[in-house]
Every structure is written in structure tokens, then in C-alpha cells.
Amino acid sequence: MTPAASLAIGPIRVWPPVVLAPMAGVTDAPFRALCREYGAGLYVSEMITARAVVEGNPKTRLMTSFAVGETPRSLQLYAVSPTVAGEAVRILVEQDRVDHVDLNFGCPVPKVTRRGGGAALPWKAPLFAAIVSAAVRAAGPVPVTVKLRLGIDDDHPTYLDAGRIAADQGAAAVALHGRTAAQHYSGTASWAPIAELVAALSVPVLGNGDLWTARDALRMLRETGCAGVVVGRGCMGRPWLFGELAAAFDGSPAPAPPGLHDIARIMRRHAQLMVQWKGEHGIVDFRKHAGWYTKGFAVGGGVRARLGRVASLAELDDVLSALGPDQPYPPGIAEAPRGRTTGAPRRVALPDRWLDDRDAATVDDEALLAVSGG
Length: 374
Hints:
CATH architecture of the largest domain: Alpha-Beta Barrel
Order of helices and strands: EEEHEHHEHEHHEHEHEHEHHHHH
Oligomer: single chain
CATH class of the largest domain: Alpha Beta
Distance between the termini: 34 Å
């Protein structure tokens, strides 16, 4: 199945209709640049707190920077205050730093939800509406989208109400991850609610959850009718997945998966981009990617341990040169979950008596603290 039209995010046309999900510590400028080398789409930054943008935090300034030629410039904001959300978006737009803003209401991390942010916030419908409205007004011609989860848990769903509210307040599109906050990344994502949201909204709905291969993406579009897909953990250590997605949506033959030696070259390229962007600390940040790249390959515990300690590009070159004979991409590894996984659903950390009143229009000021990522 090939969609008839590109994905429309306000004035932005996206083909193939594929979005890189914001992931803390992963979707920085170097990783986005590497993914773009394999295929077009919309590549979103790491989650950034609106308060940190308003305060001009130096680290946040780097995180909100884009590589030369990177377009559209897509940035995800975390906000719990309409005033702060609006001011952050105004700054980003007036300083011509973004082409698209995505609002995060899907983060399940306890440090976020226990203060009423992320996936907990849509439960407070008036507050949710006020934040989306403030961001849309401040953005002007720059499209604003919203990322949601199904709800807090099975007993407290929010996605239908929140999706309708977001569309009514001017959101250009809504993305839905088919898990509740309680599920974190456990079990299997439910795609049926994505189809339900598609039927309920007039704006594009994007589907997210358990998209490990290009076949999964096509199946999600076929089963839900969504306008596009949001790919997260499936691309960790597999930036070439975007090439496979581009081929699938274009109806072209799938490119051959890389072997071990090809992946070694990709790893070197990734590490080099990180050092160029972040300086010496870039190689430290690269270490976590090494485990994802080598997942399933017979490289030995010693090599994996060394990859987890590399401190320079020269040291990385030494380790990669010791990988031994080439190996084909391991069967079944592409379909295997990677990145963050959790066990059974757990109780969501929430502010005291959070579920008692859906009409509250504010949250604890502590929720405004800088917690970029998650």
C-alpha cells in the first residue's frame, strides 16, 4: 500500500509520511543528520522544556540548534504552563529558529508525570486546551502539533478528548502512541485507538508504537488509516531504517541491510558527527549507540566492553578494526524491540489527588523545572 498524498503538517509537505520520534539523548542534531542521509521525512529534536527556552539556558540553546541545511527545523517542547509555552514558542518563532513545533503530552517518565506533566497533563482538559491554544497563537504561521498517549492508564483514557481539543485549538496534526503512561514501553502497542482517533478528527493523525520495520509502517497505515507514522525505538542503531521506509512508501525494492563492516563505517560516521557537534564529550554520548548498532552480531564481550569505554575517535577506530570478518545482518534483529523496554504496567506517579479534579487550570510550579529529555 502506498499513500496517495504526502503528509501535510500545516504548510509543510512530508514525503514519505515518516516522522522521527523525539527521544531524549538520541535524536540530537548528529543523529538527525545521519538519518536524513538515508531518507526524507520529518526529523524532530529531543524534548526541550519551554521554561529552559524562556530562561535562555546555554545547554538548551545547543539542543535547540539545527545543523546547516537541516529543514524543516522541527522541535519538540515540554510545557505545563500556557504562559511559558506561549513565550517559548514566541521566542523560537521570532528568532527564526523553528519551522515546526511539537508539544509533548506523551512522556511517561515519573519525574515528569509526578508533577502533572507529559502524559498526565491531558487529564486536566482546561489546562491542556490553554497550553495548546497559547502555543498555536504564539506560533503564527508555524505549525504546531501534539503528541499524546492513550491516557494515564486503562481506567483513565484521555486520547479522544485530548485529540479533539488539540484540533479545536488549532493543532495542525495529532500523533498518538498506542500505549498508556502506565505501560511505559511494556507489552504491545494498541493500534485500534489510532484508527478511532483518525475517524474522530479532521486534522492528520499520526500513528506511533511498535514500528520496527518498513512492513510495520505500511501495515499501520493500512489498519488505522493514519496519515503518517512516527518511528522511535526502531531506528536506534538503525538509521538506515529511513531508507527502507522511503523505498517501501515509494514502492521500490527494499535496500539490502548492511553487514557488520558497513555498520562499522556508519558507526564511525555517527561518532564523527557527534564530536564535530559536541566536542570531546560527543564520543562519550556515542557510547550508548554502539550497543544498539552491534545488537545481534557475534562480536564478543570484549569488543562490546571496549565500545562502552571509548574516549576518542582514534580509540573507536582501534576497536572497529578488531571486529573481525564481515557478518550479514542477524536474522530477526530488525524486528526485535530495542532501546527502553519495561516489564508489566506500573502505577503512574501523579501529584496528590490528581485524578480527583479534571478542571484544574494549573499544576505545581515544580513541574516547570528544566527536565529536558525523558
